[in-house]
Amino acid sequence: MQLVVARIGRAHGIKGEVSVEVRTDEPELRLAPGAVLATDPAARGPLTIETGRVHSGRLLLRFAGVRDRSGAEELRNTLLIAEVDPDELPEDEDEYYDHQLMDLDVVTADGTEVGRITEISHLPTQDLFIVERPDGSEVLIPFVEDIVTEIDLEEQRAVIDPPPGLIDDRAVIASSRDTEEAPQDAAVLSNGTASDAAPQHAAADARSEDDA
User: Fold this and answer.
1) pTM
2) Nearest-CA neighbor of 78 among 34, 15, 20?
3) Mean pLDDT of all residues in the chain?
4) Given 20, 31, 62, 153, which is the most exposed site by the fewest CB atoms within 10 A?
């Protein structure tokens, strides 16, 4: 199984380093020197991480064969993809991979059916469940602890406590095509940071490229 673990950002300096938007809670494992990662677009990879360091709160990577700023700039906006055992689970019991959350039934605390999770959207400021309702429309559910109160993988359901207007007639219904394009295998953080593992209580380890 493949998971998006980072997105390459701007070139840093003149020796081939790039900043990366981390999308994993395990950067020391997924983005360690020696790691070989697939890419999207595929033609830009695979890439082997040669060095990594933190500078001003940002992770900087250099890849084998990339030695100058021009080569680094050519990699901008490339997604880095790690191969992960599908049976592997996050260490924290409150963390989830996207594939665990897909197709969960979404219900309110009183058992009212809302729909089914068909996509998880990772936006710069918010991570969302895209839920298909029984009538075929879609509703966006922020994946935050105050709203998503329980994930029950055994029962294959997500329990929500929606604020007024989220899922009733005043709710904002949107197509997933209207959301910012997001990798399907990246995971979700409750505070809006994209990652390959999704803790509902984690602090942000990554910032969007716009913050650079």
Assistant:
1) 0.53
2) 20
3) 78
4) 153
Strands of the sheet containing 127-132, edge to edge, are 138-142, 127-132, 113-122, 105-108, 157-160, 148-152
Task: Please choose, from the candidates 43, 184, 54, 41, the residue with its C-alpha nearest in 3D space to the C-alpha of residue 117.
Answer: 184
Contact 11, 69 (CB under 8 A): yes
Question: Distance (Å, rounded) from C-alpha 18 to C-alpha 59?
Answer: 8
Q: How far apart are CA 190 and CA 188, in angstroms?
A: 7
DSSP E strands, 64-182:
79-83, 105-108, 113-122, 127-132, 138-142, 148-152, 157-160
CB 147 within 8 A of CB 167: no
HSE-CB of 209 using CA atoms within 13 angstroms = 15
Residue 124: cis peptide before it, omega within 30 degrees of 0: no
pLDDT in tens, 17-30: 999 988 776 788 88
Of 45-49, 61-65, 107-111, 169-173, the poorest mean pLDDT is in: 169-173
Total residue count of the chain as it appears in this document? 212
**pLDDT at 167 > cutoff 60:** yes
